[in-house]
Amino acid sequence: MASWNYRRAADKARKWVLGTGENDGLIFKTGVYLLLVGIGFIYLYPVLFMLVNSFMSLDDLVNSMVKWIPTDLYVDNYVRAWKVLNYPTAFLETVWAAGAPAVLQTVVCGIIGYGFARFEFRGRSVLFVLMLATFIVPPQITMMPTYLMFKEYGLLGSTKTFIYPALLGQGLKSALFILIYYQFFRRMPTALEEAAQIDGAGYFGIFARIAVPMAGPAIIIVFLFSFVWYWNETYLAGLYFGNELAILPLKLQQFVDSYNQLYPPGSPGSQLNEAIKLAGTLLTIVPLLVLYFLLQRWFVEGIDRSGITGE
């Protein structure tokens, strides 16, 4: 009897440690959690570093004993960054410069993706391949011809340089977004469209009343990616906007460049520049973090359903 109880207890212990299946044992779960914690730390470390150092005073920055916990919450870095960036004005200009083309790109890419997914026409495969090829071509190759074209039409110095390409399906990473919509609409049951056609609905009605409501996750992911990419696009923005528009990433870059000229790295005062720069960086990315947290549930669902993971 005692040996039977011992074998039973040993069997329970083995199942608890190793599990009965492939992924329910203590060893497996511990390994997975350690891996997730390690990956999470890699991604969170830069944000934590920026957050901690942005609240440090100059005394804390030069003090080698102060690493992660400031002696005092020094908010003057954020006050200076707010003033240098002219945050309210720059924030509104950045929202417009990123939001308007992102909305247009979300709509236009949806229409193009639906057309490729649901309509059979001559040359569709060739056009689809050419469309995907635009994603492979580096933007540095088309940058100067596009700049000269905008200059000829008098579009430089305004958000039209972002809006017009997005309106014509040639915005930032439009080929990727069209592919996302294409994969999503290809999985949509055709029975719904056939039933709508029997009821007398036209192509536009089917797209607006059936396809668009079902494509909610894809719309969220396309808009979020597009908004973030336009928000962080500093090179093309600096080239096309010039000094006419001051979006937050450009303002931050200009501030860093001008401050480095006054206080080169390694000179007295350069540490203070790092703290203000980190504070300005956090002020720049906070709207994106808020937007992501508001849309994260639909974002994750869109990643899964749109097939962006390669499934």
Question: Characteristics of this structure?
Answer:
77% helix; single chain; 311 residues; MetI-like fold; mainly alpha; 15 helices
Question: Can I get a quick summary?
Answer:
With 311 residues, the protein is mostly helical.
Q: Class of the largest domain, according to the CATH hierarchy?
A: Mainly Alpha
Give the topology string: H per helix, E per strand: HHHHHHHHHHHHHHH
Kindly name the structural category: mainly alpha
CATH topology label of the largest domain: MetI-like fold
Tell the overall outline.
globular
What fraction strand? under 5%
The residue ranges in which pLDDT falls below 50 over 5 or more consecutive positions are none
Number of helices: 15
Distance from N terminus to C terminus (CA atoms, Å) equals 53 Å
What's the architecture of the largest domain, going by CATH? Answer: Orthogonal Bundle
Q: How many DSSP E strands?
A: 0
CATH homologous superfamily identity of the largest domain: MetI-like
Average predicted confidence as pLDDT: 78
Q: How much helix is in the residues? A: over 70%
Number of domains: 2
Radius of gyration: 26 Å
Largest sheet: none
